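Final report, Chapter 2: Outcomes

The project's central promise was a pipeline that accepts a single protein chain and returns its three-dimensional structure in a standardized token representation, suitable for archiving and comparison. That pipeline is now operational. To close this chapter, we reproduce one record exactly as it appears in the project archive, with the input sequence first and the structure output second.
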Amino acid sequence: MQLGVLYRLPLAVARAVLAALRGRLCALCWSLAPLSRPLSLPLPGWRRVSALSPVSPAGPRLERDDDDDDASLTPTSVNYHFTRQCNYKCGFCFHTAKTSFVLPLEEAKKGLAMLKEAGMEKINFSGGEPFLQDRGEFVGRLVQFCKQDLKLPSVSIVSNGSLIRERWFKKYGEYLDILAISCDSFDENVNVLIGRGQGKKNHVENLHKLRQWCREYAVAFKINSVINRFNVEEDMNEQIKALNPVRWKVFQCLLIEGENSGEDALREAERFVISDEEFEQFLDRHKDVSCLVPESNQKMRDSYLILDEYMRFLNCRNGRKEPSKSILDVGVEAAIKFSGFDEKMFLKRGGKYVWSKADMKLDW
């Protein structure tokens, strides 16, 4: 068999073929040199049972190596950035509009079904701005598919909120568990400095309107804030408590080469960066907010499973986003090995929580 054929086989089949070839080669070596040890051809993810055990003509007995972390990764919670396009220009954005590509709807559904089959329980749609594509219809149909057809426990969206209309809630709200709105400041002048300004629209006023719609249409409301040079001294206690989100995710401004830092980047986020000490001071100032969920750079970098617009897992371990092959081409199991995902950090940062609105028992 030509080696190139193996690359087109499913992983389990390829390993079985390699094992068979290995056994034949070991048998040949055994017959030619009975006093020597057979040639060792270890397979990825497999190991000998014992180096001292007798060697049969078929070669040493192998078993699956349970310590192989890549083989055991499950895409429990996935962030699908299906578009890079956005109507805002946040200076620290680390998933910028480097392409305008969006998968056709049916291809996206196919990939989501593959992820569900691989163990996905929660999907989060992000961007770019998810409501920019087809005026929110694209993400709406994905949300409906994931909840109605795939029956996922949790379906969520992260949005800047500027393009969401009440008619979207009327049509798709029942299928959405969590809507997270990005809000970095309750001072409109600071929002403009950051890049969240959009003409005469007031980002903070719109945030309160979205909060009310979430109550009316039974969608859990969440706020995401990136703490940076322009808002690090702000006191948000009163406003956050008044909005009463189920979670207030607070991120430390993060540099990603090729996205918001470096020669080939579309943003220059260096001027937004704060120190670890400054981030801790912000957290300490808001420690009495019960819904606060802090995420430092250390927690963020490797604890998210991120799919880009081509459904490729993005590995951020080296400080830039290095893509795997698309799950549509090689499958979830093969692609996730290159994700750089740290499952222990995912659990440590509280990545698994009560994320289905049916289990939240909220007073809408």
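Archive annotation: Residues 1-9, 11-70 have pLDDT under 50 and may be disordered.
This record, like all others produced under the grant, will remain available to the consortium after the project formally closes.
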